[in-house]
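Dear colleague,

As promised, here are the two records you asked about, laid out in our usual form so they can be pasted straight into your sheet.

NAME FIELD: protein one
SEQUENCE, THEN STRUCTURE:
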Amino acid sequence: MISKFVKLLAVALLVVSCSKKNDNLSELVINTQEGPVTYYLETALTKDQMAKGLMDRKELRADSGMIFVLQGQEDIAMWMKDTYIPLDMVFISKQGKVIAVYENAEPLSTNLIRPKITEPLGAVIELNGGDIKKNGIKVGDSVKNEYLK
């Protein structure tokens, strides 16, 4: 009897230790006029990660999203191809300021989203649709994240 228990315990520990923890999360804080808002974002650093983005997702946790880390581009185009959930997009300068927002991007749309950007981008953040309005995120808000210096 104890032997069965020990075997079950060993299997359970093996499963837990082998389960993949997402080490690719990055904490991001947006300082709005209503107070700080914290998100835990998946990080897209490579071309392949950026091309995939949040495609094929059916849901997104309330405090999560994705950060696309950029190298100072002054022009960018995003789209919602193969993305099933509405998303808000926050465009952030290299200095960590919100410089443009786009609310409730239409799921599965191939229309390009091209905000008017007048300074180099540090990142684009994708959040659940409605988060910009719900959390009072506005142009000029400051953003803190390990990828924004």
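NAME FIELD: protein two
SEQUENCE, THEN STRUCTURE:
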Amino acid sequence: MALNDVELCDEHAVHIKLVNKINHEMPEDDDLYDLAELFKVFGDSTRIKILFALFESEMCVCDIAETLGMTQSAISHQLKILKQSKLVSNRREGKSIIYFLADDHVRTIIDQGMNHIKE
């Protein structure tokens, strides 16, 4: 987008009370960085597909791979990223590792994103 495509104020007038209020309420840089990193995790369609699959049911890697038509290795790599980001958790059941959504916040984030793109 060229600079000319952005609408600008006709005059330079800073609303200092507003600026101070926003600066006071702005989260810490580290928190904003962590939030940006979290949203990067959602930037991969395979990870989104995995999360959608886990909305429906807890699943092992084999079942997720079969559902998405991918290799277990590829799914395992993506699950590692999702687990590091605290979006999924797992537990052992016999010889299987069962994956599930870490909490309801994950579903809320995805639901809000879907609502936004469908507007």
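A couple of things worth noting about protein two: The CA atoms of residues 62 and 72 lie 6 Å apart. The longest helix spans residues 104-118.

Best,
R.
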